Automatic annotation (TrEMBL):
Biological processes per GO annotation: carbohydrate metabolic process
Source organism per UniProt: Polaribacter gangjinensis
UniProt cofactor note: Binds 1 zinc ion per subunit.
InterPro entries linked: Carb_Metab_Reg_Kinase/Isom (IPR051804), Man6P_isomerase_Firm_short (IPR014628), PMI_typeI_cat (IPR046457), RmlC-like_jellyroll (IPR014710), RmlC_Cupin_sf (IPR011051)
Domain of life: Bacteria
One GO MF term: zinc ion binding
Domain Phosphomannose isomerase type I catalytic, chain residue ranges per copy: 14-118
Lineage summary: Bacteria, Pseudomonadati, Bacteroidota, Flavobacteriia, Flavobacteriales
Protein name: Mannose-6-phosphate isomerase
Binding site for Zn(2+): H103, E120, H178
Catalytic machinery residues: R198
C-alpha cells in the first residue's frame, strides 16, 4: 500500500491560560472552554494523533512509523530515531500569559524523564494589540542573583519582554527562559517531548483543581542559560513562491513559503518527511494525482516517499515548511 500525504485529527488540550481562538480563528470545533493547545501531529505516548482521512484513516502516527519506517520518515531520520517520530506540531492560543518556564536538553531529559529534550520554535499567527513574548533575560545573571530574584518575587523584572505581531518568529532552544504572553496565537514546532519546568506562574489557581500549579525551580536551576542575546526575534526573507529560511537547528529546519502562484517542490535530496503548516489563507497540495486541501490552521505530513508535489494557492497564503 502506497503512502500518501497525511492529515491527522487534532487533540485539544485544556489549559488554565487557554482561550477560544483555536475555534474562532482556526475552526477547530473543540468542545468546552479554555482550549489552549491543538496537538496537530503527535507521537507523545498517550497522545498519539490519528490519521483523519484516506487509506490510513484511524491509524496512529506510531503505527505508521512502525509499518512504513524509512518510507514515512526518510532513511537518515529512521536511522537516528527508529519508530519514534521526532517532532510535535501544535497551535497555541494564550488568552492569558503562560507560566515562565524552561526546557531541558536531551541528556538531562533522558536521564530524568526518559524522553527527548524540548528545543522548539514559535511562529506568531495572530496577536492582540500590545501582545508580548517573554524570551531570555534583560541582563546577565548568575545562579546566585537569579535565586535572589526568585526569592524576592522579582523574576519578572529581569526577564526580556518583546512586543510581537503576526509573522514574528522566535527560536526557543533548551535552557532559554520564555513565556507566551496574553493575546498570542502561534504555531509551535518542537521535539517530541512534553517536559516543561515552571519557574513562576503568577500565583494562579487552576479552576479545575482548585490549587496552584506545581513549580520546578530545583530542576530548572541546572538547565537555565543565563547569557543574554542581542536579539531574540528571528529575521527572514519574504520572497514569494520560494522557501525562505526561517529557523534551522540540529532538531528541525523551518522555512516560510509566501504562496501567490503554483510552487513545484522536489524533495529528493533532503531524505526526510516534510510537514506543511498553513498559517494564512488556503492552498491545495497536488501529489501522485491526488489533491489535498490545507486551510489556515491545518497541518499535513508529507511522507519521505512522496518526492514531488505542487502547492496551488486558492488565495494568497503562507505555509511553514518543516523537515529534518
Amino acid at each position: 500500500m502506497q503512502l500518501h500525504p497525511l492529515k491527522f485529527t487534532p487533540i485539544s488540550k485544556y489549559r488554565i491560560w487557554g482561550g477560544n481562538k483555536l475555534n474562532t480563528l482556526l475552526n477547530k470545533g473543540f468542545e468546552g472552554e479554555m482550549n489552549g493547545e491543538s496537538w496537530e501531529i503527535s507521537d507523545v505516548k498517550g497522545d498519539e494523533t490519528l490519521v483523519s482521512e484516506g487509506l490510513f484513516a484511524g491509524k496512529s502516527l506510531k503505527q505508521l512509523s512502525q509499518e512504513f519506517k524509512e518510507k514515512l520518515l526518510g532513511n537518515k531520520v529512521y536511522k537516528a530515531f527508529g519508530d519514534e517520530f521526532p517532532l510535535l506540531i501544535k497551535f497555541i492560543d494564550a488568552e492569558k500569559p503562560l507560566s515562565i518556564q524552561v526546557h531541558p536538553h536531551d541528556e538531562i531529559a533522558k536521564e530524568r524523564h526518559d524522553t527527548f529534550g524540548k528545543n522548539e520554535m514559535w511562529y506568531v499567527m495572530n496577536a492582540d494589540n500590545d501582545a508580548e513574548i517573554i524570551v531570555g533575560f534583560k541582563k546577565e545573571l548568575d545562579k546566585k542573583s537569579y535565586l535572589q530574584c526568585l526569592e524576592n518575587n522579582q523574576i519578572l523584572e529581569v526577564l526580556n519582554t518583546v512586543k510581537t505581531k503576526a509573522g514574528d518568529a522566535f527560536n526557543i532552544p533548551t535552557g532559554r527562559v520564555h513565556a507566551i504572553g496574553a493575546g498570542v496565537l502561534l504555531a509551535e514546532i518542537q521535539q517530541t517531548s512534553d517536559i516543561t519546568y515552571r519557574i513562576y506562574d503568577y500565583n494562579r489557581v487552576d479552576a479545575q483543581t482548585g490549587k496552584e500549579r506545581e513549580l520546578h525551580n530545583e530542576l530548572a536551576l541546572d538547565v537555565i542559560t543565563f547569557e543574554v542575546e542581542d536579539s531574540y526575534k528571528t529575521t527572514y526573507e519574504t520572497a514569494e513562491n520560494t522557501s525562505n529560511k526561517l529557523i534551522h537547528t540540529p532538531y528541525f529546519k523551518s522555512n516560510v513559503l509566501i504562496v501567490t502562484d503554483v510552487i513545484s517542490k522536489d524533495y529528493s535530496q533532503i531524505d526526510s518527511f516534510v510537514i506543511y503548516i498553513c498559517t494564512e489563507g488556503f492552498v491545495k497540495i497536488a501529489a501522485d494525482n491526488e489533491i489535498y486541501q490545507l486551510a489556515m490552521g491545518e497541518t499535513i505530513l508529507i511522507p519521505a516517499s512522496v518526492k514531488k508535489l505542487q502547492i496551488l494557492p486558492e488565495k494568497d497564503s503562507k505555509v511553514i515548511e518543516v523537515y529534518l
